[in-house]
Amino acid sequence: xxxxxxxxxxxxxxxxxxxxxxxxxxxxxxxxxxxxxxxxxxxxxxxxxxxxxxxxxxxxxxxxxxxxxxxxxxxxxxxxxxxxxxxxxxxxxxxxxxxxxxxxxxxxxxxxxxxxxxxxxxxxxxxxxxxxxxxxxxxxxxxxxxxxxxxxxxxxxxxxxxxxxxxxxxxxxxxxxxxxxxxxxxxxxxxxxxxxxxxxxxxxxxxxxxxxxxxxxxxxxxxxxxxxxxxxxxxxxxxx
Length: 240
Description:
Elements: H1 2-9, H2 20-30, H3 33-38, H4 46-50, H5 52-69, H6 74-77, H7 88-94, H8 125-153, H9 161-192, H10 203-234
């Protein structure tokens, strides 16, 4: 059923994949009393008009999903001929069966912080409190409504199916290549063998260091011997 849905979704209307926050932002601008008072020609219910293809798509796709699910059920086969002649009330109830598999259903935990109005020390406490209430009404509450609208709209944001399938295929290829590289390393380790002994240091460098240090040791030994001989000559025992 999901495979058939994705095949049909590849050729669906691109209008269904438009950005929902932008749609509701344009509705808040054009479907307002200010627009109606200043320019009545631009006043229109954007959300109602632009989401009409969404509702038609949900009705048609819910019928297709119902047919796909009960395709092998002989008892429901005789009911299929009534699915194209639903009343508006039945269509609304049938839309509850619709499920969009191109929507990201993960609950991305996130938060946003709204900066508080800066306290004015030149005013009294009561004046600052009044300004805080005005700021909450004119700035904080509209921002909170916009954030809530974006959060809820993302739950119904449709994605491009072709792009989504390409991303899944690229992810599968990346996982497969990582597994292949890991298996190649394991096979190479098994072929070479494993030893717990420490790898000895190269002896060539040590021998070169000993050869360089040998002349210096010889010179030091000769100086020590000459010093000892001179001390013996100087300190002779006196006989009385």
